[in-house]
Structure formats: structure tokens, C-alpha cells
Write a structure and sequence with these properties.
2 domains; four-stranded mixed β-sheet; S-adenosylmethionine-dependent methyltransferase activity; methyltransferase
């Protein structure tokens, strides 16, 4: 299952799946990450890479991803964060001003949201302003 609110991203996903010969194994859904059209406890794995920082409410997205995970399911992802250095913060601020980034989380926010959503954080690393995370649904 590939879900995205952007028609362009879904088009790219379909194209890539076709190139890899797996398009017939995939489903594609036009979906808002803060209101996913899936039942609770649906997925074993949810991925969100380089997207949370683009959203107006990234915390809501984390909670929604946790909702659709099965018990024992894993959420993996990455996002840009503020608070990792002046140079990185200037980069994030410039992209926010240009309209590319939304309410970019601060360092530590994502780990707190994962825990608040009932997930157990197993990986929390950063490289510059990029935070990588993995958490398991309890």
C-alpha cells in the first residue's frame, strides 16, 4: 500500500512500481496522513520519510500512523527538525518562508510524539537537521 495526498507523488510511486515489476502487487491511495482511510491495527509497517516537516500538524500525523499499526507493528521514518544548529535552523527557516516546510518539529518532539502515541522508540538518531526514528506499537 502506498498512500499520499499528492497526485504527483502517487504517479511517481506507480511509475517506480511499474519499473520494478511490482505494480500489480501494490495498491495506491489518495490519503491525508492526518486522516488515513484505513481501519485501526491494519499495517505491520508504516514508513514516512522526509514528510513530517512539510505538514501543518506533524504530531497528528504521528498519532494517525500509530493508529493504523498493528500491535507489534513498526513505524520508521525521517524528518527535518529545528534546534540542531544555527546553520541547519537557517536552512529550515528559509524553506518554511518559501512555503516548502510546515510546522517543522524541534529536536526531541518526534520522540515525544511517538511515545505519547503509544509507541516504544527503538531508534532515534540525527545527522544535522535530519532526525531518523523507528518505534514499535505496544
Amino acid at each position: 500500500m502506498a498512500a499520499d495526498i499528492s497526485p504527483d507523488m502517487l504517479r511517481r510511486a506507480r511509475s517506480r512500481a511499474t519499473q520494478l515489476g511490482v505494480a500489480d502487487l501494490m495498491e495506491f491511495a489518495d490519503a491525508d496522513i492526518t486522516a488515513l482511510p484505513f481501519q485501526d491495527n491494519t499495517f505491520d509497517l508504516a514508513l514516512t520519510f522526509n514528510g513530517l516537516h512539510c505538514l501543518p500538524d506533524p504530531r497528528a500525523a504521528v498519532f494517525e500512523l500509530a493508529r493504523v499499526l498493528k500491535p507489534g507493528g513498526i513505524l520508521r521514518g525521517s524528518t527535518c527538525v529545528r534546534g540542531r544548529g544555527r546553520r541547519q535552523d537557517r536552512f529550515v527557516t528559509a524553506l518554511q518562508a518559501a512555503g516548502f516546510f510546515g510546522d517543522t518539529p524541534r529536536a526531541g518532539d518526534v520522540q515525544r510524539w511517538l511515545t505519547d502515541a503509544g509507541l516504544e522508540v527503538s531508534v532515534a538518531r540525527h545527522s544535522g537537521s535530519v532526525e531518523l526514528f523507528e518505534a514499535r506499537h505496544n
